[in-house]
Amino acid sequence: MRYQITGKQIDIGAALQTHVETQLSAMLEKYAGRPTDANVIFSKSAHEYVCETIIHLSTGIMCTAKAHATEIYAAFEACSEKLDKQLRRYKRRLKDHHKDRAAPVELMQAASYILAGSGQGDETEEPDSLQPIIVAEMETKIPSLSVGEAVMQMELAGAPVLVFRNEKKDGVNVVYRREDGNIGWIDP
């Protein structure tokens, strides 16, 4: 298990790092068989400390949690409780998928772009060009999952949408949370 514990413009002491590693190790040993790495990022927002944790499991699932508190240890504890709740909630499903999958999830490289939205100004004005302005361009990974695993990964990450490669049909699919609270699945 690899831990990366960092602070954004704040100093993280050895005691906090040891505390975080101990707590996460105990929690992950209880729920997730083989986690691969954990990233814990501490930052300060006004008078509160923010703790954001991202855990990658060997099954390709990614768990994320974020919490705020006035004390840095309290922020981590709140974040840890959220992760514990997520992992406890999905423990049976994680174990079921873990048994079926002999190898880690295969990832495919893809380009990801962020496009500029329409300005805050008058909406009746015509834009100079119909070509969108690319604000950022980066690499992303598209996992090869079953539909059930994709839904579980989307829920664990708290994301509104997940693009994945369907293992059974070998095509790119999308699962998303609908406005009515249900999950939608696009299978072109």
From TrEMBL:
<dbReference type="InterPro" id="IPR050574">
    <property type="entry name" value="HPF/YfiA_ribosome-assoc"/>
</dbReference>
<comment type="subunit">
    <text>Interacts with 100S ribosomes.</text>
</comment>
<comment type="similarity">
    <text>Belongs to the HPF/YfiA ribosome-associated protein family. Long HPF subfamily.</text>
</comment>
<dbReference type="InterPro" id="IPR003489">
    <property type="entry name" value="RHF/RaiA"/>
</dbReference>
<dbReference type="Pfam" id="PF02482">
    <property type="entry name" value="Ribosomal_S30AE"/>
</dbReference>
<dbReference type="GO" id="GO:0043024">
    <property type="term" value="F:ribosomal small subunit binding"/>
</dbReference>
<dbReference type="GO" id="GO:0022627">
    <property type="term" value="C:cytosolic small ribosomal subunit"/>
</dbReference>
<keyword id="KW-0810">Translation regulation</keyword>
<dbReference type="InterPro" id="IPR034694">
    <property type="entry name" value="HPF_long/plastid"/>
</dbReference>
<comment type="subunit">
    <text>Associates exclusively with 100S ribosomes, which are dimers of 70S ribosomes.</text>
</comment>
<protein>
    <recommendedName>
        <fullName>Ribosome hibernation promoting factor</fullName>
    </recommendedName>
</protein>
<dbReference type="InterPro" id="IPR036567">
    <property type="entry name" value="RHF-like"/>
</dbReference>
<dbReference type="InterPro" id="IPR032528">
    <property type="entry name" value="Ribosom_S30AE_C"/>
</dbReference>
<dbReference type="InterPro" id="IPR038416">
    <property type="entry name" value="Ribosom_S30AE_C_sf"/>
</dbReference>
<comment type="function">
    <text>Required for dimerization of active 70S ribosomes into 100S ribosomes in stationary phase; 100S ribosomes are translationally inactive and sometimes present during exponential growth.</text>
</comment>
<dbReference type="GO" id="GO:0045900">
    <property type="term" value="P:negative regulation of translational elongation"/>
</dbReference>
<keyword id="KW-0963">Cytoplasm</keyword>
<dbReference type="Pfam" id="PF16321">
    <property type="entry name" value="Ribosom_S30AE_C"/>
</dbReference>
<feature type="domain" description="Sigma 54 modulation/S30EA ribosomal protein C-terminal">
    <location>
        <begin position="131"/>
        <end position="184"/>
    </location>
</feature>
